Amino acid sequence: MRRLWLPNYTYVYTMTHIRTEQSAAMRFSALALARNAASFHENWPQLWRSPTPQSRYDVIIVGGGGHGLATAYYLAKEHGISKVAVIERGWLGGGNTGRNTTVVRSNYFYPESAHFYDFALRLYEGLSRELGFNVMLSQRGMLTIGHSAHHLELLARWVNALQLNGVDGELLNADQVREWLPLLNNSAAARYPLRGGLLQRRGGIARHDAVAWGYARAADALGVDVIQNCEVLGFIRDGERIVGVETTQGQLRAPKIALAVAGHSSVLAAKAGFRLPVTSYALQAFVTEPVKPVLSCVALSMATGVYLSQSDKGELVVGGGLDLYPSYAQRGNLPTLQGVVAGLLELFPCFSRLRLLRQWAGIVDVVHDSTPIIDKAPVSGIYLNCGWGTGGFKAIPGGGFVFAHLLATDRPHKLAEGFTLKRFASGALIDEAAAAGISH
Ligand SMILES: Cc1cc2nc3c(=O)[nH]c(=O)nc-3n(C[C@H](O)[C@H](O)[C@H](O)COP(=O)(O)OP(=O)(O)OC[C@H]3O[C@@H](n4cnc5c(N)ncnc54)[C@H](O)[C@@H]3O)c2cc1C
User: Fold this and answer.
1) 120, CA 20 to 30 Å: which among 78, 280, 353, 400?
2) For residue 229, which phi and psi values (nearest 5 degrees)?
3) 390, 396, 402: which to mutate for ligand 1, most atoms within 8 A of CB?
């Protein structure tokens, strides 16, 4: 018995043999749905192949999360480089890409980040059409709530920066925030009183698995080998240069090895013989049982760092800050979860009777200035896409695009010139802790 994915992302069990030829990136349509219904859904093609690894590639990308898959897609599409393998030790999107709270936005403070993240958001806006796969982008608005005079001052600075950088954003007074969030605790005794907010209307959420699957399918159709259940254990050297990887499926060689492994960047860097300015922490999230629509936007509290949205299924998707110590334990600890729940209930006491359905964590790679690293590594042959910390889902299309440019041309893309390792020597850090640190 096999599992077969349908375009609406549910699956059916079928006894039929799944076709294994290269998927030609079929177009999903009402007609295709009707045609396949007539044949009892037995003839949907695989979304991507399961190829046997070849011994040589032009580029090997380690990590089958959103960034690795998007990089493969743009390498093939924008640069005509399709002799590419994406090597994933588990299943596609099983890392942080499938564990995040799906918030997308581009309201960053400094010009480098604002321009980059806005480019990523613009790619998101056309992504379903580009990939022929519905990533369920919902631009329902992202509202950051201020609770004090100090917050209002910060929000005013922030909105000025957005406008200077050409990114949409508007200040809301307390009454306007109340209209967006009628269930927010509005009593005179509220611990975190409502003073105002910053709204980015183009912010919202997208379906995380679909982003990984859409890129995988489109990259596969362009000839990329997407290889799952294949862990990179070490590197093959030729003198000072890295020329390949040792994997659980044997040795694979390529002149360029791209690391897009998020929370495990330092682990692989250590195997290659260099260190990264990255610390890994667990970041948790949870969902409640589903309820009728109660929340129309993504909301984030500046006082508690708690943020939430409501999924299409009706669950409230809630997140907060990092666990407080470095760790690779992907469970997350209870005190952090309790802190996030306490913050949530200060803001929305009416949610106190909701039961939690699921809780999980992912290991994120945090850099001191909360800005990513997209650069060549200090060891020749290795290229880095890491340091996304708590906020790299929204960056996936942009991250893949600029990383593919670096791999193809050996020069940083204009939008990512500030994201190189040089900044740690020069001191030209882009400190986005306020925009990225906890508020994904
Ligand atoms: C709880 C949580 C909430 C978040 N919320 C948001 C949010 O709302 N918005 C936002 O923008 N960002 C958010 N993020 C951050 C975001 O999820 C990540 O920054 C982003 O997904 C990173 O994508 P990636 O492709 O780099 O990493 P991943 O998706 O983690 O992919 C890396 C892959 O590398 C693989 N790998 C690791 N080691 C090896 C190896 N040795 N060999 C082969 N494969 C290997 C892993 O299995 C993994 O699949 C959140 C993260 C978490 C954990």
Assistant:
1) 280
2) 55, 40
3) 390
Closest-CA residue, ligand 1 atom 3, reads 100
Q: Distance between CA atoms of 282 and 207, rounded to whole angstroms?
A: 21
DSSP for 56-111? B-SEEEE--SHHHHHHHHHHHHHH----EEEE-SSSTTTTGGGTS--EE----SSH
- For ligand 1, the distance from its centroid to the CA atom of residue 388, given in whole angstroms, is 8
Q: What is the pLDDT of residues 76-98, one digit of tens each?
A: 999 999 999 999 999 999 999 99
Ligand 1 contact via 394 beta carbon (within 6 Å): yes
Backbone angles phi, psi at 198, to 5 degrees: -125, 125
* 360 CA: nearest ligand 1 atom: 1
CA distance 348 to 186: 9
Per the CB < 8 A criterion, the answer to whether 287 and 316 are in contact is yes
C-alpha 105 – ligand 1 centre gap (Å) = 17
Q: In what order do the strands lie in the sheet with 382-386?
A: 225-227, 84-87, 59-62, 256-259, 382-386, 373-376
Query: What single-letter amino acid sits at 182?
Result: P
Q: What is the percent of the chain with per-residue pLDDT over 90, rounded to a whole number?
A: 89
Question: Which of 271, 209, 248 is CA-nearest to residue 257?
Answer: 271
Q: Could you identify the residue written with the tokens 């760790």?
A: 327
What are 373-401's pLDDT values in tens digits?
999 999 999 999 999 999 999 999 999 99
107 lines ligand 1 (CB under 6 A): no
Which letter, b or e, does each residue of 143-155 get, where b requires 16 or more Cβ atoms within 10 Å of its Cβ?
Answer: bbbbbeeebbebb
**Token pair in block for residue 26:** 């079929």
Ligand 1 contact, 72 CB (< 6 A): no
Distances (CA, A) of 360 to 63, 103, 435: 20, 16, 23
How does pLDDT run across 172-185, given as a tens digit for each residue? Answer: 999 999 999 999 99
- pTM assigned to the model: 0.94
Under 8 Å between Cβ of 406 and 383: yes
Check: CB of residue 106 under 8 Å from CB of residue 114.
yes
**Residue 124 pLDDT > 90:** yes
Would you give the DSSP letter of residue 54? P
